[in-house]
Amino acid sequence: MENRFRGDFPIFENSGVHYLDSAATTQRPRVVIAAINEFYEKMNANPLRGLYSLSMSATDAYEEARERVAKFIGAKNSREIIFTRNTSESLNLVSYSYALNNLKEGDEIVATVMEHHSNMLPWQFAARRTGAVLKYLEPDREGHFSDEEINSKITDKTRLVAIGHVSNVLGCTNPVRKIADIAHSRGAVVVVDAAQSAPHMRVDVKELGADFLAFSGHKLMAPFGIGVLYGREELLTEMEPFNYGGEMIETVKLEGATYAELPHKFEAGTVNAAGAYALMKAIDYLENVGFDFIKETEERLTGLVFEEFAKLPYAHILGSPRPEEHCGIVSFTIDGVHPHDISSILDGDNVAIRAGHHCAEPLHVFLGIPSTARASIYLYNTQEDIRAFIDSIKNVRGILGYGS
Predict the structure, then answer these.
(1) pLDDT, tens digit, for every residue of 9-31?
(2) 24, 100, 312, 359: which one is catalytic?
(3) The pTM is what?
């Protein structure tokens, strides 16, 4: 089946690559690449600084992007949108500016064992610094959390719950709203890592019950180095800045400073205005494609992978046996073959997949699996990509001397 959007991505024109690593970073369509050039060719000046027309054009583009992001995730207004470098920086901002100033000894933080390191290490740090206790929700092998597990771990002592919307290893979509309702009923705030969900499904901060939510542009067809933190305005208003320097101030004296209003008090220094502008164009492109098309493409191609793997007794897929519960992510093992060898052999056939623990080492330890290989599907993938992937997988054990 022909993919009508694949031609929008110039990397596929001459490379011949079968790219199946979109959970790590997506490819960029022409409109996003053009947006980067457009900014530097027509609006290149420091935004928020100058009173001349070029600088004001840069400012307008930057703030238009903020408005677009707010609309994209259902924020109340653009003051709730902070531009960062990536999801990791967004979550660290919450850890430093919120957790360190609101948690105390004996309070509890709840995360899950399946979190990406970016949504785990900041809470380990906050727990060490404040004396809070960090607890982890444990799923079953398909990635599902029982009601008993949720209710036993989130208690009246819980003050912060951090959860990934979609696992970057198992591909499962977590019950964020259910967890958020329980957390809120017990006085906790909810931090959502939406890095793996925002590119694939409609994300609405109000519907999720998120107090904070983070995602990265580079997983959503935007450039590297632009990320988003959403925070409820009431929380952001009370929080201290994360970084200090230019543009995040109202006044500066030798004795101290007062800070700018939201959102600028969290955006010290010269900002990545070109990245924000290109992120806006990526969101426009994504919504033009439509989440229905993305869901259909991912489920159809993931289903094809499942069908073919079922014929290979030595190949094992992690997580749910239902392809529609994988959000385009297929993490797997092959008996007797290290995932790094799988990736290297596939690379020889111009098939690009990920190998390792995918920045989710505790989940692999929990599952008793040192590392995995991972193929991840996105809107530009085709049946040809999957066929090339499967053909190469069938050769892996033979190349290493195991036979078929």
Answers:
(1) 999 998 899 999 999 999 999 99
(2) 359
(3) 0.96
